[in-house]
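I am writing to request your help with a piece of structural work I have in hand. I set the record out below, with my sincere thanks for your time.
___
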Amino acid sequence: SAASDVYKRQAHDKGLTVVALTGRNGGNIANLLQDNDVEIRVPSESTARVQEVHLLTIHCLCHQIDEVLFG
């Protein structure tokens, strides 16, 4: 979406790494990512499947961040 493109540009302007959760073919954002960015793509044509995997991915990332920060 246009908003995610703006957020990606702002992150890059601040020297941050972008972590993009994408589906199917990666969409427009996949082509805008830099070498140090991370794309987690769910290569499915099913929107429901993409959303399920994104939700699981977010929970796993949050769990790991919590472990690193708080043990």
About this structure: Helices lie at 2-13, 27-32, 47-70. The chain has three helices and two strands. Residues 47-70 form the longest helix (24 residues).
